[in-house]
Design goal:
Blueprint lengths: L8 H21 L3 E3 L6 H5 L31 H11 L6 E3 L4 H15 L14 E6 L3 H9 L3 E8 L2 E2 L1 H10 L3 E6 L13 H9 L8 E5 L17 H7 L6 E6 L11 E4 L2 H14 L5 H11 L2 H30 L5 E3 L8 E5 L4 H10 L2 E3 L16 E4 L6 H19 L4
Parallel strand pairs: 1-12, 3-4, 3-6, 6-7, 7-8
Antiparallel strand pairs: 2-9, 4-5, 8-9, 10-11, 11-13
Bound molecules: pyridoxal-5'-phosphate.
Length: 422
Amino acid sequence: MTEYNRLSAGERRSKAAEVEARLEGFREEKLDLDMTRGKPGSDQLELSNGLLAAVDAKGWKTPSGVDSRNYGGLDGIEESRKLFGDYLGIAASEVIVGGNSSLALMHDTIAQLMTHGSSTLAKPWWGSNPAFLCPVPGYDRHFTILERYGIRMVSVATRESGPDMDEVERLAAADPTIRGLWCVPRYSNPTGYTFSDETVERLACMKTAAPDFRILWDDAYAVHHLGSGPAKLASILAACRKAGNPERPLIFGSTSKISFPGGGVAFSGGSEKSCAWARERLFVQTIGPDKVNILRHVLYFKDIAGILAHMEKHARILQPKFAAVDRILTRELSGTGIATWTRPQGGYFTSLDTSDGLASTAVKLAAGLGVKVTPAGSTFPHKKDPRDRNIRIAPTFPGLAALEKATEVLAVCIQRAALAGS
Ligand code: PLP
């Protein structure tokens, strides 16, 4: 395909007419397609139905003999700490299991920091004009939590190896109001990138002007591979411990996209001191998590090998969807010079960048044709993409045919946005 900026005026006009005709065709189809949120499809949910029968009227005792039906076990059952410690690559003693949403745990963590301060500085962040470094494009819900608590967001560019570390180091060292960094280190939302060993090392060792700088390490997609296997990610906890900053990382994960979103199990991790700090809050909040559901997960998956085998089944469903998105984007946009996109080896999203200024027009055009895409700007703090170019594509939920159509419509809308005025 010819680059759009090399088209002659006549070629642009005929291309615009061709695109207009395709849009008209889509209009006549009266589409109603949704590519907004990264939800598992119902065929993926089917994979975990066995969980529902994993605990019954006779099987409520945990392997170590705890009655899962009763109060207690603030940080989950013993076997679950081992299972999800293996998931996060940390020791069972560094894990707390409980709740059904890692996002809720992250929200609570920020709230706790604001009202009570951290495990190393018991001084509320509230009133100190705190700020967080936010690699962009990033996960909209992380930004929404910071927004709610009035925490300033300082955007940092994302590279294939992770956040721009020169920038992260410069900002963290210079400004004591910068209290942390939020990240999705593996198969990131939305780029699919995984942090390099060097990035992990630099995050662990960097000098920070804030004495209690925290990295919120959202390992939501640790085992969610599409390619040859889970991406290797160096242990942030080990690196921070070695660098003398053991309290720096606060680690999160859940089985939302392994078993059932909302019906899964969430967990967090960190140094033993960080875990004790989290337990203090939990003790006030609850008398114990849903141990029946935690037990279900332990009995069903058994060990990390069980989780990895289960994730192979998810991958078999998801691979063709991600491949379809890439195939259609390549067919419609490659060589045009108006869009680039990621080819993730895992996770739940493809990140697409248009030429500057086209994303919101394209997303609006697609919505007008019955194709819902995450609103442009969502992947940036305050939902404002300064270059108006990033679009997050969520291929998992729609069926393959619907996904192919939705991707085609979006790609043609990007072409239309680029040809506006021709
Ligand atoms: N973290 C990331 C990076 C996500 O993409 C999502 C969901 O899309 C979540 C967390 C939500 O996880 P949970 O269901 O455990 O709250």
